[in-house]
Structure formats: C-alpha cells, structure tokens
Amino acid sequence: MTKILFVDDQENVLSALRRMLYGRRDKWEMEFASGGEEAIQRLEQKSFDVVVTDMRMPGIDGAELLSQARDRWPAVVRIVLSGQSEPDRILRSMGATHIYLTKPCDALRLTSVVSQSSILRNRLPDAAIKRIVSQMGAVPCQTSVFEQLVEELAQSFPCIDRLGTLIATDIGMTAKILQLVSSSFFGQPQRVNSPEQAASMLGVTLLRELVLSGNIFQPVDLSTIEGFSLEELNRHSREVAECARMIAQLETSDQRIVDDAWLAGMLHDIGKIVLACAMPSSYQEAVRLAEQEGMSLWAAEREVFGTSHAEVGSYLLSLWGLPTPICEAVGTFRSHRSYEVGSNFLPVTAVHVANVLRRKKLVPQEITKPMLASFFRY
User: Fold this and answer.
1) In the predicted structure, residue 185 carries a pLDDT above the cut 60
2) Domain 230-375: which CATH class?
C-alpha cells in the first residue's frame, strides 16, 4: 500500500481530506499531521512514500517541511496542496516541491497525481537512483543555451518568442518549464502544446525571476564523459520530436496526441542527463561498455545501473506532474514494438518509430505511410 502523510494546521481541512479519500483506504495507508512539527516527528518514526502538505502553517511551514524531507528522506514524493499563492513562498518551496496543487482539489485530481508517481516509482528497482531523481530541483541544461537565455533576459525588452525558442532547444529546460505550468505553481495547471506556449504563459517578468533568482536551470559540463555530448543529445531529441510530430499527424487528427508526440520525443532521453550528471563515472562505464560490446547504450545502462534512462526519465516527469501519455511514452518507447495501422494511436508509437528512423540515420523532411510500412513489416 502507498503510505501518505497529509499535513495541515487546520483540523477541518484534515477532516475533509479523510472524508474525501475514505474510498482509497484499501490502497492507501493514510496518516494526518496537524502542522510541520508533528509531520517531522511522524517522518522520523515511520517511512512514507508521499507527503502532501499545506504551505502556510505556523512554526515549520510547508516550504521548510519539504526542504527537510528532501534532505533527510529524499525518496519521498513531495506535494503541496495549498490555497496560498504568494510568489515568495512558491519560489522558496519550488526546489523541494514536485507538484503544486491548489485548494480546493477534488479527489480525482489528487488520486491521479499520487497514483501516477507511485506506479512509475515502482519501475525503478534501485533506491539510490530513486533518491537522485527525487532530489532533482534545478534541471541540468546546455551551457551555451543557458548563456543565450541570460543574455536575452538582460535586454531592456526581452522577446518572449526568442526565450521560448531557446528553451525549446534544450531537453532539461523544456522539462522544467512544463513542470511549472503542469502544476499550480503560478496559476491553474495548464496542458500546453509546446515549451514556447509555456514560456508565453509565464511571461518575461516571471521567467527572469525564475532563471536569475530561482535558479531553475543548472548549466552543466559533461565533456568529461568521453563519447557523450549534451549538444548532440539535444539535437537528436529535436529531430526525434519533429519526426514524431509528422508521424502523429499522419495517423491521427487529435491535436493533443500530435502535441504530446512532439513533447515526448523531445523528452525521451532526459533520463540520460539525470544519470550522466548524478553519476558521471558510472555513466562513462556504460558508454564504454556500449562501444566495446557493440550493444545499445540502453542495454549498457541496464548492465551498469540495473535500469535505463527510459525508466529514470519517466519517473522524473511523473514526479513533476507531466501528462500521463508523455510519461508513459518516455518510459516505454524502447520496448514498444508494434506499428499497427488502424489501432488506437498513442504518442509512444510516434516516438518509437521516430527513434528507429533516427538510429537508421534517417531524418526525413516528410513521412508517408509506405515509408513507415517499410520499416515495420511482419
């Protein structure tokens, strides 16, 4: 059973949560703490999978509680459920918060958020990797893209379109910006179709605050890992994303599926960045193993880590509250074998096919059904 600790200094709120979630008692083991101090005591006495806390509380508030949870119990999923939206409180809590929900929050939304993170969490067998993913706040990004972003923000009148375009070229930046709009950090959660749209929704003033003061992006240098290039990985991801979009447009008229195919294609390798940044020497071992044994990097990762970048990336995105079809596509695109015309089309199929085309060194300007059939015959 998933063990959840709910924290709020108002007893009527805790009582409402008990009533609202009564039907989940056969799947969730729930406890309720009346404030941050009591929550810390509960966490010291017992292990929990998820902490759901209010933000404004006397003594230890939500931001401080989640910061301590991140540092002392890093594998715990950390969720804010609050009616408070002061920008300074949100900025202070952002690095320690996975998902920000606003009150009132219905049972369906809360159940969906907790269940998705719990399901994908179970796909990672290694506790150390779970902790690494769970502790990630600022997201690694390409240094040259970050410098261009800061330069644009330093202008007297930064161009929001230019900012969005830059963010869309980097895997980490794309993931982080989607986290901010998929949760209620700054307004109601939104389902967006691109990083450019997400940047536009946040606006120049807030983006400047987040990038320069909130430190949501962390430029990294991974050149010490021989045979691994973040610049090349970003280029590959953009190519897969564009190819996945073309495939989805060919197979469905559902614009949401088309958009999710692009986003999943862009983010399908984000787990590589997580592993490479957190454990560079081990990732170097995986890269060398792949080269020496002639195996895929995906298979080499499994040899070294016991898991692959697909599961790692999927778990991170689920923790950040991204839509389920994107998380599932990122987690299963390598094992998705079939291409069936006429079946229910999902973003994972588009990403799988696009990645195969890229591995074959093919990035076509246009994709047709006969072209796809030539790659997937039975």
Assistant:
1) yes
2) mainly alpha
